[in-house]
Design goal:
- The protein is of the alpha/beta class and 642 residues long.
- Among the domains are: 60 residues; 114 residues, no CATH class; 199 residues, 3-Layer(aba) Sandwich (Rossmann fold), CATH 3.40.50.
- It is 57% helix and 10% strand.
- It has an 8-stranded parallel sheet with strand order 5-12-11-6-10-7-9-8, sandwiched between helices.
- Helix 5 packs across helix 7.
- The longest helix has 68 residues.
Length: 642
């Protein structure tokens, strides 16, 4: 059945990739087995290590004593005495892996005497090759002290075998890895005890320092309070204690004087207007109304009173010029006197304001000092109570016990990684080998590269094609093969058919004989020539012809096999063209079969005759380069694939 599904050569064919891996399954299994064996040997030969874990919790008091409420608590927070935050879990984990803690653990646990932690050998010397390289490059090993080298070895081994972590609930885990399970549990419990002692010493030191600091601060606050109160007392004795009240009364008096002066100035302005009107002599009612409209103050009770007039508005009478002048003089004197009083009152107000400001400052300082002293007194009391209370803040959840099974090496993991590595390496080598061979692993890839008009499966007639030529007619009569019928129809209008064998099964010669037998049943005269060596068994019992018989045409149908025509030199013979023309004129169809080595030579020689090209391919045998080379030279009519 034909298959016209072609794929793009630029895309990766996953089916081709997977089939190529499957074809190399023995290689992949072999490499995977070797990798598993090596990883298993490594897991068995590697030194065993055991890990012991101790779990504990530290409840750190973050309040720093009894909390203060209300105004005292607010003042304490502002002053920085509200709380004292202890060390966090992250800080504690960092301290456990710090250099100072490791050296302290070395002193108390004698880690340097354990060969697991101290691998330094002062008598060790470099190998000969390493010493030679150092000598050639001029490298000089620095002369370090033995104690320093031991410390570095212990620190390096400690960081590699001891780890501290925090659980999700806040508990701390210390894990120690060692070659001896008993020592691993002993070191884990000892390190946990060192952490407890470190936290206890830190808390005691912090409490003592806090109490000392608070006591000193309280003494300073007492001195500040006494000094502030003393300054307030001295100021009260030297100055008036009612400075603020005097300032208020002086301010009121000053405002009254300013109002009186403003009133006097307004009266003087109206008197000047009256004096001008009296001098002009225009003293009728209209002049009074105009004066009243421009200066309503003429109807003021006080104004009329100083002029000696009736307070009734309708009882207006014009004052004399002499009266006006006397009253104006009196008002001028009063204005000058008010200026003097205003200046005196302003000076007194400034003095009272300065005194009130100083008094307020001293009073405020005294209150602040008293509040600070009160807050510190309460803080010292609470810290003293807390210092005497020692709660059990260190809780052990789980002591480290000697582990029963080693933590490393993890054999299952190593074996799994070995298997994965073996599969990966085996697959990589299989792909490399597949690329190196350059053959096809799927029919889809062969059909895509061949780009033939018809692609047929040769498995249906593979066994029949291996029969002798004399047995083929009876075998084809008893069995119907659709692939042969389709190929016969496709080749019916072609005089010259060229069969190329690219490691196919059946071969090109066998397929040509099979198609010749199939076509001869329909009455066609066919001649068959195999350029490659033809076995005697295949032509036994079947008519053959030689060069002299070429001109003889047979009319009753059948096919002949051409022999003794030069074999490999057939395409290079000087009579090649005339021989092909004679064959094409004497027979209905000429079948020429060739192997992969002579395929291109025959294709080039037969190209002027425009043959119909039939290609025989085989998976894992036919190379991609050969098909692409043939396609570039001539199109393929039929592709037989297994």
């Amino acid at each position: 059945m034909s298959d016209q599904n072609f794929q793009n050569n630029d895309e990766i064919d996953l089916s081709e990739l997977f089939v190529s891996l499957w074809s190399h399954k023995i290689l992949i299994v072999l490499i995977t087995g070797i990798s598993i064996f090596i990883s298993g040997f490594y897991a068995l030969s590697k030194e065993r290590k055991y890990t012991a874990i101790a779990v504990f919790d530290i409840e750190q008091n973050r309040s720093g004593g009894s909390s203060l409420s209300g105004e005292l608590g607010a003042l304490a927070s502002i002053a920085g005495f509200g709380s004292s935050v202890g060390s966090g879990t992250d800080l504690l984990l960092e301290r456990i892996t710090s250099r100072e803690f490791i050296l302290e653990a070395d002193q108390k646990l004698a880690l340097s005497e354990d060969k697991f932690f101290n691998s330094y050998n002062p008598d060790a010397s470099d190998p000969a090759w390493k010493a030679l390289i150092k000598k050639l490059i001029g490298w000089h090993t620095p002369n370090r002290k033995k104690q320093l080298m031991i410390q570095e070895s212990v620190i390096r081994a400690y960081l590699g075998s001891v780890s501290a972590s925090s659980s999700g609930a806040g508990a701390i885990q210390i894990s120690v890895t060692h070659t001896e399970p008993e020592l691993a549990s002993q070191y884990a419990n000892s390190l946990m005890e060192l952490v407890r002692e470190m936290i206890e010493d830190q808390n005691n030191t912090s409490k003592a320092y806090r109490l000392s600091y608070l006591a000193e601060t309280l003494a300073d606050a007492l001195q500040d309070m006494e000094a502030a109160q003393s300054k307030l007392k001295e100021y009260t004795l030297q100055n008036s204690a009612a400075a603020r009240e005097n300032f208020v009364s002086g301010s009121v008096r000053l405002d009254t004087l300013r109002v009186e002066k403003r009133e006097a100035e307004e009266f003087m302005t109206v008197l000047q207007r009256l004096e001008e009107l009296v001098k002009l002599g225009n003293l009728d009612r209209e002049a009074y109304e105009a004066l009243r409209a421009s200066s309503p103050i003429v109807d003021d009770v006080n104004f009329r009173r100083i002029l000696g007039m009736s307070e009734t508005i309708s009882a207006w009478r014009w004052p004399s010029l002499e009266t006006i002048q006397q009253v104006s003089a009196t008002l001028k004197d009063r204005s000058k006197r008010l200026d003097v009083e205003i200046a005196d009152n302003e000076e007194n107000a400034k003095l009272y304001a300065s005194s009130a400001e100083e008094l307020a400052k001293l009073t405020r300082d005294a209150k602040i000092a008293e509040a600070t002293f009160t807050v510190l007194t309460e803080q010292v009391k609470s810290q003293t109570l807390v210092a005497g209370f020692k709660p059990d803040t260190f809780k052990v959840f789980s002591y480290a016990s000697p582990p029963l099974a080693p933590s490393s090496p993890k054999r299952n993991l190593i074996l799994a990684l070995g298997a994965v590595f073996g599969v990966f390496v085996g697959s990589a080598l299989s792909l490399i080998n597949a690329l190196r061979r350059g053959v096809y692993y799927t029919r889809r890839a062969v059909i895509a590269d061949a780009k033939s008009l018809i692609a047929l499966n040769s498995n249906r007639f593979k066994r029949i094609a291996r029969l002798k030529s004399s047995s083929l007619p009876s075998a084809l009569s008893n069995r119907e093969i659709n692939e042969l019928d389709e190929a016969e129809v496709s080749l019916s209008d072609k005089n010259l058919v060229y069969f190329v064998d690219l490691e196919g099964k059946p071969t090109a010669a066998q397929t040509a004989r099979l198609l010749a037998t199939q076509s001869s049943k329909s009455g066609k005269n066919i001649v068959l020539y195999d350029v490659s060596r033809q076995s005697t068994k295949e032509v036994e019992g079947h008519p053959t012809i030689v060069i002299s018989d070429i001109t003889v045409s047979k009319a009753d149908g059948g096919f002949d096999i051409l022999t003794e025509f030069g074999g490999a030199s057939f395409f290079t013979s000087k009579n090649f063209k005339s021989t092909i023309e004679s064959l094409m004129s004497s027979y209905d169809q000429v079948y020429i079969s060739s192997d992969s080595q002579k395929s291109m030579a025959g294709l080039i020689a037969l190209k002027p005759f425009d043959p119909s090209l039939v290609l025989l391919s085989r998976l894992r045998k036919t190379t991609k380069a050969s098909i692409r080379k043939i396609v570039s030279a001539h199109p393929i009519s039929i592709l037989f694939h297994d």
